[in-house]
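Example 3.2
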Amino acid sequence: MKETALWPLQQAIFKCLSEDADLNDVITGVYDYVNQNTPFPYVTVGEPTVSPFESKTSYSENIPWVLHCYSDAQGKRETMQMLNLMVMALTKENWHVEGFKVFKFMIDPNMRVLSPADIGFPYQGILNVRFYIEQED
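Structure, written as tokens:
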């Protein structure tokens, strides 16, 4: 059975975002898990989906991944700024994922900023990215 790229890819995404100086000038951190005490604004590495595809000679995966950012600032400006900084961080360099080769990376053009549902809830930015990846030989 082939190994999925999920964990090595999450580590690469986390490293890319958490080591970007421009993004980290704005946020308090990049997280896999947050609780009620996590200070705003921040980024979370959200939900992946994996669709494997095989040929006679290779095994590859199509992995869409959702990234989130949250802000408790008044208005959407900070959330939009975080989304822009996330895109810039994710596209600065070619992707290196331990044990895998990323042969295509895409940013979904449908970024969204969701307004708070109630007073006290944060603004949420949603960024969808997609990786086409295969195991290295």
